[in-house]
Design brief:
Helices cover about 75% and strands about 0% of the residues. It is mainly α.
Amino acid sequence: MNSFLAKTFGGLTTHYYVRQFLFGLVFTAMIISVAANGPGGIVAKPGLIILAIVNTLLYPYSRFVYESVVGYIMGNNIFFVNALFMLLVKAFTMAMCWSFAIFVAPVGLAYLYWRNSRPVVE
């Protein structure tokens, strides 16, 4: 069991996971803030809070899948675009990755398990 967890959830570097996790916390803070100011307060929405926490924990793996797919499609090309436009696109893709993390992250976890289970060939 420890081998399985190390090959899947431990498959990302600590730096990458923490960086993406902190970005995910921003979305959780926004969701909790909106829920707390809504009717009934935060106590009335336990399912929303649980989903926000799960999405935040899985967000780094969802983002890993997104970045891997985009990296494969785009290759090493460089695009020159307006910085404001790029920030908006980045924020949108981050929000999408966070929102669908519960569905996308299992793909990333399966890939990490497969990649870390292969024998090392030298």
